[in-house]
User: What shape does this take?
Amino acid sequence: MTCRILAVLVSVLALIACTAATTAPTASEHADAPVAPAQAPATPPQSITITGVDLHDGTVLRHGDTYYLYGTMYGCGFHWGDPGTPWCGFGVSTAPSLAGPWSQPTLLFDPDTAAPGTGKTFRELCRLYGAGCFNPRVVQRAGWGPNDGAWILWFNAPADFTMRRANAYWVMGGNNPAGPFGPQAGPPFGSVNKPALWSCHDNGDFSLVLDNPRPPMLLCTMADQTLAAERLDQWGTGGQPGQPKRHQLAGATRAEAPGAYRDPATGVWIMTWNELNCGYCSGAPTSYATAPTVDGPWTSPATVNSQWGSTPLGRRGISATSCGGQPRTVFEVDGAAYQLIDLWGAGGNQTGAGIHFERLEYRGEGAPNQPHQPFTPWRCGA
Assistant: This one.
């Protein structure tokens, strides 16, 4: 009886939330409840490269015994910057381990789903101006908010910012980590909405950072290539009105693709980002900053390392070349944090591009003006 009463209360709370300006997925006693992860590998791998899977600029999570790899697809012929090519959608692959083998990707939602308020489907919106849609990020509403097990997908549609000067972000609810998301998912959580945001009001690459028991933090790239942050509401589908502005994080400029995690040994929060804001870069640097909480303030060491030539990162550089690719986000599985790196190929179509996972192992800050290596050196697959 107690469980049924709790389920009814959760349903009532979700119904109230659905009347708010930001639509939230509704709750149900039949939700996919949080699943305790199976035992992690004794030693999480240091470095993994994945090829032959058409998923890019995405992320990874583990649910139960299954690993999920999300990303943007190019196989139908999308070329960034070419509005005459189709948008292929977002996909997900599954595997029994982080190293694979990974299944063939399946769509997270039907690209012909309507994008409310635009008069377009997502297929149309995401091919407009050849701008694409990118950065699929999936989190479960577990351990925060109503703790109802809902799955939440965020992504960005840069054309929406160009066309309407609206923030570029979209949110869909789902019942399972592999989707489908949005209306196609059906009850109890299937939904699609445009989030209301106050700090992350532009159009750039982003990540969702779990911070249980508080709602996740949205880290985002602004139009001027600085970094910002915004705490999500209890449903994870929009920002919280009245929260302080969090702009120009760590003083970074020419930055994009932030991600973050909390180092378990020191309790320090680590944020990484791509130091060069350029499309499909190869050998782009990865930089970092630290903070006592994910709310900040974020700070980076400033001593310049002249050996890194025309793009001096100072002591904030983790890697000058990011294993030949471009850093995209940070994800955590099996008690370890990883930098996800896209290994881009030439041209606007990236069907065959690989991805690389490099483990982040923080060793602490060194003394000023002394050799500085705060992270275990990356192996880059060696």
Residues 2-18 form the longest helix (17 residues).
